[in-house]
Amino acid sequence: MEKHEVVIAGAGPGGLKAAKTLEEEGKEDILLIEALPKKRIGDKFCGGMVPPRAVDLIGIPESLINTTLNKADLHIDGLTFDVPYQTRWVKRIDLGQYQLSLLKKTELRDSTKVMDVEPKENYITTLDGERIAYNYLIDGSGFKSPIKRKLSGKRENYWQCSGYMIKTKKQVDDAFHFYIYTDMNASLFWTLPYTDLLEVTVAYPIYGSIDKERARQHMEELAGSKDLSLNEGEPKAAPVPWDYKGFKFGNIFLLGDAAGLPSTIIGDGIYQSAKCGEMVAKTITNKGYDWERELKRDLLKHYYIGPGMWINKVYGWTNAAIKIAHLLTNKMDTKISVPEFIGKIARRILYNW
Ligand SMILES: Cc1cc2nc3c(=O)[nH]c(=O)nc-3n(C[C@H](O)[C@H](O)[C@H](O)COP(=O)(O)OP(=O)(O)OC[C@H]3O[C@@H](n4cnc5c(N)ncnc54)[C@H](O)[C@@H]3O)c2cc1C
Fold first, then answer.
1. From CA 70, how far away is CA 294, in angstroms rounded?
2. Atom number in ligand 1 closest to CA 255
3. Which atom of ligand 1 sits closest to the CA of residue 270?
4. Does ligand 1 come within 6 angstroms of the Cβ of 267?
5. For ligand 1, atom 19: residue with the closest CA
6. pLDDT digit string, tens, across residues 283-318
7. Strand partners, 139
8. Which residues contact 15 (CB under 8 A, 6 or more apart)?
9. Is the domain 1-44+92-153+243-305 a CATH 3.50.50.60 member?
10. What was the ipTM of the complex prediction?
11. Minimal CA–CA distance to 21: which of 256, 283, 251?
Protein backbone atom coordinates (compact mmCIF):
# COMPACT_ATOMS: atom_id res chain seq x y z
CA MET A 1 0.00 0.00 0.00
CA GLU A 2 1.21 3.52 -0.78
CA LYS A 3 2.32 5.27 2.41
CA HIS A 4 3.21 8.84 3.40
CA GLU A 5 4.36 10.40 6.61
CA VAL A 6 1.62 13.03 6.42
CA VAL A 7 -1.56 12.81 4.35
CA ILE A 8 -3.68 15.96 4.11
CA ALA A 9 -7.27 15.71 2.85
CA GLY A 10 -8.53 18.96 1.29
CA ALA A 11 -6.67 21.98 -0.11
CA GLY A 12 -8.67 24.76 1.55
CA PRO A 13 -6.96 27.51 3.59
CA GLY A 14 -6.45 24.97 6.40
CA GLY A 15 -4.94 22.11 4.40
CA LEU A 16 -2.73 24.46 2.39
CA LYS A 17 -1.45 26.24 5.50
CA ALA A 18 -0.73 22.87 7.15
CA ALA A 19 1.31 21.77 4.11
CA LYS A 20 3.22 25.06 4.01
CA THR A 21 4.09 24.96 7.73
CA LEU A 22 5.12 21.30 7.54
CA GLU A 23 7.48 22.19 4.68
CA GLU A 24 8.91 25.08 6.70
CA GLU A 25 9.45 22.71 9.63
CA GLY A 26 11.46 20.37 7.40
CA LYS A 27 8.94 17.66 6.48
CA GLU A 28 9.32 16.26 2.97
CA ASP A 29 6.90 13.36 2.63
CA ILE A 30 3.55 15.16 2.45
CA LEU A 31 0.65 14.08 0.23
CA LEU A 32 -2.15 16.60 -0.32
CA ILE A 33 -5.35 15.06 -1.71
CA GLU A 34 -7.91 17.45 -3.19
CA ALA A 35 -11.28 16.70 -4.79
CA LEU A 36 -11.09 19.66 -7.19
CA PRO A 37 -8.80 19.87 -10.22
CA LYS A 38 -5.63 21.91 -9.58
CA LYS A 39 -6.82 24.99 -11.49
CA ARG A 40 -9.97 25.22 -9.35
CA ILE A 41 -8.31 24.90 -5.96
CA GLY A 42 -9.74 27.67 -3.78
CA ASP A 43 -12.97 27.93 -5.75
CA LYS A 44 -15.48 28.02 -2.89
CA PHE A 45 -18.64 30.03 -2.28
CA CYS A 46 -17.29 32.30 0.44
CA GLY A 47 -17.18 36.05 0.99
CA GLY A 48 -13.42 36.03 1.37
CA MET A 49 -13.26 38.68 4.08
CA VAL A 50 -9.78 38.44 5.53
CA PRO A 51 -9.24 40.00 8.96
CA PRO A 52 -5.73 41.36 9.69
CA ARG A 53 -4.80 38.25 11.63
CA ALA A 54 -5.57 36.08 8.56
CA VAL A 55 -3.57 38.39 6.29
CA ASP A 56 -0.59 38.09 8.66
CA LEU A 57 -0.87 34.34 9.25
CA ILE A 58 -1.25 33.34 5.61
CA GLY A 59 1.03 36.12 4.36
CA ILE A 60 -1.55 37.46 1.92
CA PRO A 61 0.11 40.04 -0.36
CA GLU A 62 -1.56 43.40 -1.02
CA SER A 63 -1.94 42.47 -4.70
CA LEU A 64 -4.36 39.68 -3.76
CA ILE A 65 -6.86 42.02 -2.05
CA ASN A 66 -9.77 42.47 -4.45
CA THR A 67 -11.45 45.28 -2.55
CA THR A 68 -11.31 47.23 0.71
CA LEU A 69 -14.66 48.42 2.06
CA ASN A 70 -14.77 51.15 4.68
CA LYS A 71 -18.31 50.60 5.90
CA ALA A 72 -20.28 47.60 7.15
CA ASP A 73 -23.86 48.76 7.48
CA LEU A 74 -26.55 46.90 9.36
CA HIS A 75 -30.16 47.31 8.23
CA ILE A 76 -33.02 46.03 10.35
CA ASP A 77 -36.10 46.64 8.24
CA GLY A 78 -35.96 50.43 7.76
CA LEU A 79 -33.54 51.02 10.63
CA THR A 80 -29.98 51.52 9.39
CA PHE A 81 -26.83 51.49 11.45
CA ASP A 82 -24.16 53.15 9.38
CA VAL A 83 -21.00 51.55 10.76
CA PRO A 84 -17.49 52.76 9.89
CA TYR A 85 -15.84 49.34 9.89
CA GLN A 86 -13.08 48.49 7.45
CA THR A 87 -13.01 45.05 5.84
CA ARG A 88 -10.73 43.58 3.17
CA TRP A 89 -11.77 40.92 0.71
CA VAL A 90 -10.03 38.38 -1.48
CA LYS A 91 -11.52 36.14 -4.13
CA ARG A 92 -11.27 32.64 -2.76
CA ILE A 93 -9.89 31.17 -5.97
CA ASP A 94 -7.09 33.77 -5.89
CA LEU A 95 -6.32 32.85 -2.28
CA GLY A 96 -6.30 29.11 -3.03
CA GLN A 97 -4.05 29.47 -6.07
CA TYR A 98 -1.72 31.76 -4.12
CA GLN A 99 -1.40 29.38 -1.15
CA LEU A 100 -0.83 26.51 -3.60
CA SER A 101 1.97 28.44 -5.33
CA LEU A 102 3.85 28.61 -2.01
CA LEU A 103 4.22 24.82 -1.79
CA LYS A 104 7.52 23.41 -2.99
CA LYS A 105 7.82 19.85 -1.65
CA THR A 106 4.23 18.70 -1.13
CA GLU A 107 2.89 16.14 -3.60
CA LEU A 108 -0.53 17.23 -4.84
CA ARG A 109 -3.08 14.64 -5.94
CA ASP A 110 -5.92 16.70 -7.38
CA SER A 111 -9.31 15.53 -8.71
CA THR A 112 -9.18 12.84 -6.03
CA LYS A 113 -11.78 12.41 -3.33
CA VAL A 114 -11.18 10.91 0.11
CA MET A 115 -14.15 8.69 0.96
CA ASP A 116 -13.30 6.93 4.20
CA VAL A 117 -10.72 6.44 6.91
CA GLU A 118 -9.73 3.43 9.00
CA PRO A 119 -8.34 5.12 12.13
CA LYS A 120 -7.13 1.87 13.70
CA GLU A 121 -5.36 0.73 10.52
CA ASN A 122 -4.05 4.22 9.63
CA TYR A 123 -5.21 4.40 6.04
CA ILE A 124 -7.72 6.33 3.96
CA THR A 125 -9.67 5.14 0.93
CA THR A 126 -10.28 7.31 -2.14
CA LEU A 127 -13.26 7.29 -4.50
CA ASP A 128 -11.25 5.09 -6.89
CA GLY A 129 -10.88 2.53 -4.11
CA GLU A 130 -7.18 3.28 -3.61
CA ARG A 131 -5.85 2.86 -0.06
CA ILE A 132 -3.20 5.26 1.20
CA ALA A 133 -1.51 4.77 4.58
CA TYR A 134 -0.28 7.58 6.82
CA ASN A 135 1.62 8.27 10.01
CA TYR A 136 -0.42 11.44 10.49
CA LEU A 137 -3.70 12.36 8.83
CA ILE A 138 -4.78 16.00 8.57
CA ASP A 139 -8.40 16.57 7.63
CA GLY A 140 -9.01 19.89 5.93
CA SER A 141 -11.85 18.64 3.75
CA GLY A 142 -14.41 21.06 5.18
CA PHE A 143 -18.09 20.71 5.88
CA LYS A 144 -18.70 17.35 4.20
CA SER A 145 -15.64 15.67 5.66
CA PRO A 146 -16.08 11.88 5.76
CA ILE A 147 -13.26 11.76 8.33
CA LYS A 148 -15.03 14.09 10.75
CA ARG A 149 -18.21 12.01 10.35
CA LYS A 150 -16.35 8.86 11.32
CA LEU A 151 -14.56 10.45 14.28
CA SER A 152 -17.18 12.67 15.87
CA GLY A 153 -20.54 11.95 14.26
CA LYS A 154 -22.82 13.85 11.94
CA ARG A 155 -23.12 17.63 11.76
CA GLU A 156 -25.36 19.20 14.38
CA ASN A 157 -25.22 22.95 13.95
CA TYR A 158 -24.62 24.93 10.82
CA TRP A 159 -25.77 27.93 8.87
CA GLN A 160 -26.88 27.26 5.33
CA CYS A 161 -25.92 30.04 2.90
CA SER A 162 -27.56 30.47 -0.50
CA GLY A 163 -26.70 33.29 -2.81
CA TYR A 164 -26.01 34.68 -6.24
CA MET A 165 -22.82 35.98 -7.80
CA ILE A 166 -23.82 38.65 -10.32
CA LYS A 167 -21.20 39.94 -12.77
CA THR A 168 -20.88 43.73 -12.85
CA LYS A 169 -18.92 46.08 -15.13
CA LYS A 170 -17.50 47.93 -12.12
CA GLN A 171 -17.78 47.89 -8.34
CA VAL A 172 -21.38 48.85 -7.61
CA ASP A 173 -21.07 49.85 -3.96
CA ASP A 174 -18.46 50.92 -1.43
CA ALA A 175 -19.99 49.20 1.60
CA PHE A 176 -20.73 45.74 2.89
CA HIS A 177 -24.39 45.55 3.95
CA PHE A 178 -26.10 43.18 6.39
CA TYR A 179 -29.90 43.01 6.31
CA ILE A 180 -32.21 41.61 8.97
CA TYR A 181 -35.89 41.48 8.07
CA THR A 182 -38.42 41.11 10.85
CA ASP A 183 -40.57 38.92 8.57
CA MET A 184 -37.71 36.45 8.08
CA ASN A 185 -37.17 34.20 11.06
CA ALA A 186 -33.53 34.13 12.26
CA SER A 187 -31.88 34.75 8.93
CA LEU A 188 -29.27 37.19 7.75
CA PHE A 189 -28.93 38.69 4.28
CA TRP A 190 -25.94 40.51 2.89
CA THR A 191 -24.65 42.22 -0.23
CA LEU A 192 -20.96 42.26 -0.96
CA PRO A 193 -19.47 44.23 -3.85
CA TYR A 194 -16.27 42.99 -5.46
CA THR A 195 -14.62 44.99 -8.21
CA ASP A 196 -16.48 42.97 -10.88
CA LEU A 197 -19.19 41.05 -8.99
CA LEU A 198 -22.02 41.58 -6.55
CA GLU A 199 -22.71 38.78 -4.10
CA VAL A 200 -26.24 38.66 -2.67
CA THR A 201 -26.67 36.01 0.01
CA VAL A 202 -29.01 34.75 2.71
CA ALA A 203 -27.81 32.64 5.64
CA TYR A 204 -30.08 30.77 8.02
CA PRO A 205 -29.51 28.26 10.81
CA ILE A 206 -30.61 24.70 10.13
CA TYR A 207 -32.71 24.57 13.29
CA GLY A 208 -34.78 27.49 12.00
CA SER A 209 -37.05 27.58 9.00
CA ILE A 210 -37.02 29.99 6.12
CA ASP A 211 -39.67 31.04 3.64
CA LYS A 212 -37.60 30.50 0.48
CA GLU A 213 -39.97 32.45 -1.78
CA ARG A 214 -39.89 35.46 0.55
CA ALA A 215 -36.11 35.18 0.91
CA ARG A 216 -35.73 35.28 -2.87
CA GLN A 217 -37.97 38.36 -3.03
CA HIS A 218 -35.77 40.17 -0.51
CA MET A 219 -32.65 39.18 -2.45
CA GLU A 220 -34.23 40.30 -5.72
CA GLU A 221 -34.99 43.69 -4.10
CA LEU A 222 -31.38 43.97 -2.94
CA ALA A 223 -30.03 43.16 -6.42
CA GLY A 224 -32.66 45.49 -7.95
CA SER A 225 -31.45 48.38 -5.77
CA LYS A 226 -28.19 48.15 -7.76
CA ASP A 227 -30.01 47.82 -11.11
CA LEU A 228 -29.18 44.12 -11.24
CA SER A 229 -31.27 40.96 -11.22
CA LEU A 230 -30.75 37.55 -9.64
CA ASN A 231 -31.51 36.04 -13.05
CA GLU A 232 -28.17 37.39 -14.30
CA GLY A 233 -26.32 35.74 -11.41
CA GLU A 234 -24.80 32.35 -10.77
CA PRO A 235 -26.56 30.53 -7.89
CA LYS A 236 -24.28 29.28 -5.12
CA ALA A 237 -24.76 27.47 -1.83
CA ALA A 238 -22.50 26.40 1.02
CA PRO A 239 -22.85 25.83 4.76
CA VAL A 240 -20.92 27.27 7.71
CA PRO A 241 -20.58 24.60 10.41
CA TRP A 242 -20.14 25.36 14.08
CA ASP A 243 -20.30 22.10 15.93
CA TYR A 244 -16.85 21.76 17.43
CA LYS A 245 -16.24 18.43 19.17
CA GLY A 246 -12.49 18.01 18.96
CA PHE A 247 -9.30 18.86 17.12
CA LYS A 248 -6.90 15.96 17.81
CA PHE A 249 -7.95 12.32 17.66
CA GLY A 250 -4.70 10.40 18.22
CA ASN A 251 -2.71 10.86 15.00
CA ILE A 252 -5.66 12.42 13.13
CA PHE A 253 -6.36 16.17 13.22
CA LEU A 254 -9.45 18.08 12.11
CA LEU A 255 -8.99 21.59 10.72
CA GLY A 256 -11.31 24.59 10.52
CA ASP A 257 -14.64 23.69 8.93
CA ALA A 258 -14.03 19.96 9.30
CA ALA A 259 -13.64 20.58 13.05
CA GLY A 260 -16.66 22.93 13.05
CA LEU A 261 -14.63 25.90 14.26
CA PRO A 262 -15.82 29.01 12.36
CA SER A 263 -16.88 32.00 14.43
CA THR A 264 -20.41 31.65 15.79
CA ILE A 265 -21.09 35.35 15.29
CA ILE A 266 -20.70 35.93 11.54
CA GLY A 267 -19.34 32.60 10.40
CA ASP A 268 -15.90 33.71 9.23
CA GLY A 269 -13.49 30.78 9.23
CA ILE A 270 -10.49 31.39 6.95
CA TYR A 271 -8.28 32.45 9.85
CA GLN A 272 -9.48 29.60 12.06
CA SER A 273 -8.69 27.01 9.38
CA ALA A 274 -5.27 28.43 8.60
CA LYS A 275 -4.49 28.65 12.31
CA CYS A 276 -5.50 24.99 12.77
CA GLY A 277 -3.21 24.11 9.85
CA GLU A 278 -0.29 25.84 11.52
CA MET A 279 -1.08 24.27 14.91
CA VAL A 280 -1.25 20.75 13.47
CA ALA A 281 2.06 21.12 11.66
CA LYS A 282 3.72 22.37 14.85
CA THR A 283 2.17 19.57 16.91
CA ILE A 284 3.58 17.00 14.49
CA THR A 285 7.05 18.50 14.25
CA ASN A 286 7.56 19.78 17.79
CA LYS A 287 6.67 17.39 20.59
CA GLY A 288 6.82 20.21 23.15
CA TYR A 289 4.24 22.34 21.32
CA ASP A 290 1.25 23.00 23.56
CA TRP A 291 -1.64 22.77 21.09
CA GLU A 292 -4.26 22.62 23.85
CA ARG A 293 -3.16 25.96 25.25
CA GLU A 294 -3.10 27.51 21.77
CA LEU A 295 -6.54 26.10 20.97
CA LYS A 296 -8.04 27.61 24.12
CA ARG A 297 -6.09 30.86 23.90
CA ASP A 298 -7.04 31.57 20.32
CA LEU A 299 -9.55 29.42 18.44
CA LEU A 300 -12.01 28.41 21.14
CA LYS A 301 -12.11 32.00 22.34
CA HIS A 302 -13.43 32.99 18.93
CA TYR A 303 -15.72 30.01 18.74
CA TYR A 304 -17.41 30.74 22.04
CA ILE A 305 -17.10 34.47 21.37
CA GLY A 306 -19.20 36.29 23.94
CA PRO A 307 -22.54 34.63 24.27
CA GLY A 308 -22.76 34.21 20.47
CA MET A 309 -22.73 30.44 20.53
CA TRP A 310 -25.51 30.15 23.09
CA ILE A 311 -27.74 32.88 21.75
CA ASN A 312 -27.35 31.24 18.37
CA LYS A 313 -28.21 27.85 19.74
CA VAL A 314 -31.41 28.75 21.52
CA TYR A 315 -32.64 31.73 19.60
CA GLY A 316 -30.75 32.74 16.51
CA TRP A 317 -28.85 35.96 17.13
CA THR A 318 -30.63 37.74 14.30
CA ASN A 319 -33.87 37.33 16.25
CA ALA A 320 -32.13 38.72 19.32
CA ALA A 321 -30.94 41.71 17.26
CA ILE A 322 -34.48 42.36 16.06
CA LYS A 323 -35.78 42.39 19.64
CA ILE A 324 -33.01 44.77 20.73
CA ALA A 325 -33.70 47.08 17.80
CA HIS A 326 -37.39 47.20 18.74
CA LEU A 327 -36.48 48.02 22.32
CA LEU A 328 -34.10 50.76 21.22
CA THR A 329 -36.47 52.57 18.94
CA ASN A 330 -39.98 52.47 17.58
CA LYS A 331 -38.98 54.66 14.67
CA MET A 332 -37.94 51.94 12.27
CA ASP A 333 -37.22 54.34 9.41
CA THR A 334 -34.13 55.86 10.91
CA LYS A 335 -30.51 56.07 9.95
CA ILE A 336 -28.15 56.02 12.90
CA SER A 337 -24.56 56.97 12.22
CA VAL A 338 -22.48 54.87 14.54
CA PRO A 339 -19.47 56.83 15.83
CA GLU A 340 -16.14 55.70 14.45
CA PHE A 341 -14.84 54.56 17.84
CA ILE A 342 -17.68 52.01 18.11
CA GLY A 343 -16.70 50.59 14.71
CA LYS A 344 -13.14 50.34 16.01
CA ILE A 345 -14.24 48.60 19.21
CA ALA A 346 -16.39 46.14 17.24
CA ARG A 347 -13.46 45.43 14.95
CA ARG A 348 -11.17 44.90 17.90
CA ILE A 349 -13.60 42.52 19.57
CA LEU A 350 -14.31 40.52 16.43
CA TYR A 351 -10.97 40.36 14.69
CA ASN A 352 -8.02 41.74 16.57
CA TRP A 353 -8.17 40.58 20.14
C1 LIG B 1 -21.33 32.01 2.05
C2 LIG B 1 -20.10 31.94 2.91
C3 LIG B 1 -19.38 33.09 3.15
C4 LIG B 1 -18.24 33.04 3.95
N5 LIG B 1 -17.53 34.19 4.12
C6 LIG B 1 -16.39 34.15 4.84
C7 LIG B 1 -15.60 35.33 4.96
O8 LIG B 1 -15.94 36.38 4.42
N9 LIG B 1 -14.45 35.25 5.69
C10 LIG B 1 -14.05 34.10 6.30
O11 LIG B 1 -13.01 34.10 6.98
N12 LIG B 1 -14.78 32.97 6.18
C13 LIG B 1 -15.92 32.96 5.46
N14 LIG B 1 -16.65 31.82 5.31
C15 LIG B 1 -16.17 30.59 5.97
C16 LIG B 1 -15.01 29.99 5.16
O17 LIG B 1 -15.42 29.80 3.83
C18 LIG B 1 -14.61 28.65 5.76
O19 LIG B 1 -14.57 28.74 7.17
C20 LIG B 1 -13.23 28.23 5.23
O21 LIG B 1 -13.25 28.10 3.83
C22 LIG B 1 -12.85 26.89 5.83
O23 LIG B 1 -11.62 26.49 5.31
P24 LIG B 1 -11.21 24.95 5.34
O25 LIG B 1 -9.81 24.88 4.83
O26 LIG B 1 -11.50 24.39 6.68
O27 LIG B 1 -12.24 24.22 4.35
P28 LIG B 1 -12.70 24.59 2.88
O29 LIG B 1 -12.34 25.96 2.49
O30 LIG B 1 -14.13 24.18 2.79
O31 LIG B 1 -11.82 23.62 1.98
C32 LIG B 1 -12.07 22.24 1.94
C33 LIG B 1 -11.33 21.68 0.74
O34 LIG B 1 -11.44 20.25 0.75
C35 LIG B 1 -11.88 19.78 -0.51
N36 LIG B 1 -12.63 18.56 -0.25
C37 LIG B 1 -13.90 18.45 0.21
N38 LIG B 1 -14.22 17.15 0.37
C39 LIG B 1 -13.13 16.43 0.01
C40 LIG B 1 -12.85 15.05 -0.02
N41 LIG B 1 -13.76 14.15 0.36
N42 LIG B 1 -11.63 14.65 -0.44
C43 LIG B 1 -10.69 15.57 -0.82
N44 LIG B 1 -10.91 16.90 -0.82
C45 LIG B 1 -12.11 17.32 -0.39
C46 LIG B 1 -12.72 20.91 -1.07
O47 LIG B 1 -12.79 20.82 -2.48
C48 LIG B 1 -11.94 22.13 -0.58
O49 LIG B 1 -10.91 22.48 -1.47
C50 LIG B 1 -17.81 31.82 4.52
C51 LIG B 1 -18.53 30.65 4.27
C52 LIG B 1 -19.66 30.70 3.47
C53 LIG B 1 -20.41 29.43 3.21
1. 31
2. 26
3. 11
4. yes
5. 269
6. 999 989 999 999 988 888 777 664 555 555 555 666
7. 9, 254
8. 8, 9, 32, 34, 138, 140, 141, 255, 277
9. yes
10. 0.99
11. 283
